[in-house]
Write a structure and sequence with these properties.
Elements lengths: L5 E6 L3 H12 L5 E6 L2 H8 L13 E4 L8 H10 L8 E5 L4 H9 L4 E4 L4 H18 L7
Parallel strand pairs: 1-2, 1-3, 3-4, 4-5
């Protein structure tokens, strides 16, 4: 049994969605740590361990919003999937957009999953619990280095 916490990077600029996501994970059973960054530039700095992120843990899973300031989620996703060391980290898009173009472009950039954020509280919590159940309980994640 793995006693090391799963490292999750949440890339989200909406404070309400950050709070809800963290609350939903707290209700789960998987040992985890959630780090949060609020824009695309900060996400890349976190992943490349620049500046204040020099000692940040490598994420085992990334939850990525598409509508971010500075660099959008598609730019961050492209950066991750073009990097030889980062590209194996599963990236789940959590977006308010259900646009076919957004979904298709995210998958073309090798997103591992695309989930539209529900607008009501209970549905949002259920989505996060489902993410936890699948990605942190059933799926095997690549080993952290």
């Amino acid at each position: 049994m793995n006693t090391k916490p799963i490292e999750i990077l949440l890339v989200e600029d909406d404070p309400g969605d950050i709070r809800l996501t963290k609350e939903a994970f707290k209700e789960g059973t998987i040992l985890h740590n959630i780090s949060t960054v609020t824009d695309g530039v900060e996400a890349i700095r976190y992943l490349t361990k620049e500046g204040e992120y020099s000692n940040s843990p490598r994420p085992d899973l990334i939850l990525l919003d598409l509508n971010l300031p500075k660099k959008n989620g598609k730019e961050v996703l492209q950066f991750i999937k073009l990097d030889p060391d980062l590209k194996i980290i599963p990236v789940i898009i959590l977006s308010t957009s259900s646009s076919a173009n957004d979904v298709e472009s995210a998958y073309k950039l090798y997103a591992n999953s695309y989930i539209t954020k529900p607008v009501d509280f209970d549905s949002f919590i259920n989505v996060i619990k489902t993410v936890e159940k699948f990605w942190l309980s059933l799926a095997l994640l690549p080993s952290s280095r």
